[in-house]
Design goal:
Rossmann fold; 3-stranded parallel β-sheet; binds NADP nicotinamide-adenine-dinucleotide phosphate
Length: 287
């Protein structure tokens, strides 16, 4: 059996078309564009690329981007002043602070200044708590993008055993909460997990978010499993996932490639979250 390869690029393009219709309808209704503020501090080259792609994504989906590029030597006070001003600006629907921040800046304090209703990354403790409580929220973009992929392929989640390898706040934990919300039986694994291979082999849906190239090998995968590869690893100048794609695809029923799988859906989900925040903010005004 050779797996169906889930094309994240194509899904991302379709999702963006649908999103553009929503943001255009928003503009017609409220007389302004959905607006995302992106804050980049310092000169980290990878962050520069991410920010550029996010701004391009905004432009492609009729979202107004506001880019703030602060120098490496920005103080905590200066960064906080900017985030506070954006928090108070009624024309700004979403605020994104690109991570990692330069050493010396307090990431947690800065992120907590983003009001939950403008927290397009879904990192604020209130949004994380609401996710666990099953309430309306904004959830972290990468796992939300994975859910969109599963839904788009009509992959059954309810009652399935989902195994997630990785427990980060950005991927593993919110992924678990989202799958649990849809009634999967969820197991979270990490570096201290014993018998990892046996647990992975039980998975109907296996999500790899580890950060180690080709860590998940075919002998860890059940015949017919859905395999989602979140990993992005650079090996000899090439991008590799956390899954040994060539061998695992012969056993899985569905698999995401790297590149071209989960990655493209992450920024698209950020844009969707921005539109969601804008709609909720406008609805809250009219309540
Ligand atoms: P992270 O914060 O470094 O977390 C990695 C997780 O993997 C940790 O929970 C760690 O366990 C676990 N782990 C490490 N070695 C392990 C082992 N030998 N066995 C079992 N578990 C192990 O990474 P992250 O931010 O979640 O990112 C994970 C990967 O996804 C990275 O490659 C990252 O680049 C990629 N990523 C991609 C996107 C995208 O858009 N596609 C977005 C975000 C991240 P402990 O907690 O015990 O240390």
């Amino acid at each position: 059996m050779s797996a169906k390869i889930i094309d994240g690029k194509a899904l991302s393009a379709r999702t963006r078309e649908e999103l553009k219709e929503k943001t255009t309808a928003f503009e017609q209704k409220y007389g302004r564009k959905v607006c995302l503020a992106v804050v980049l501090v310092g000169n980290d080259p990878a962050s520069e690329v991410y920010v550029r792609n996010k701004i391009r994504g905004c432009e492609a989906t009729n979202i107004k981007p506001l880019a703030y590029r602060l120098p490496e030597e920005t103080t905590q006070k200066e960064a906080e002043e900017l985030v506070r001003a954006l928090a108070e600006d009624d024309g700004v629907d979403g605020i994104l602070v690109q991570l990692p921040l330069p050493a010396g800046l307090d990431e947690i304090r800065l992120l907590e200044l983003i009001p939950p209703e403008k927290d397009v990354d879904g990192f604020h403790p209130v949004n994380v708590g609401n996710l666990l409580l099953g309430r309306e929220t904004v959830a972290s973009c990468t796992p939300m993008g994975v859910m969109t992929m599963l839904h788009d392929e009509n992959i059954e989640i309810c009652g399935k055993h989902a195994v997630i390898v990785g427990r980060s706040n950005i991927v593993g934990k919110p992924m678990a909460a989202l799958l649990l919300r849809e009634s999967a039986t969820v197991t979270i694994c990490h570096s201290k997990t014993k018998n990892l291979k046996d647990i992975c082999k039980q998975a109907d849906i296996l999500v790899a978010a580890i950060g180690k190239a080709e860590f998940i090998t075919a002998d860890m995968v059940k015949e017919g499993a859905v395999v989602i590869d979140v990993g992005i690893n650079r090996v000899d100048g090439k991008l590799k996932g956390d899954v040994d794609f060539e061998n695992v695809k012969e056993k899985a029923s569905y698999i995401t490639p790297v590149p071209g799988g989960v990655g493209p859906m992450t920024i698209t989900t950020l844009l969707e979250n921005t539109c969601l925040c804008a709609e909720r903010r406008e609805n809250a005004k009219n309540r």
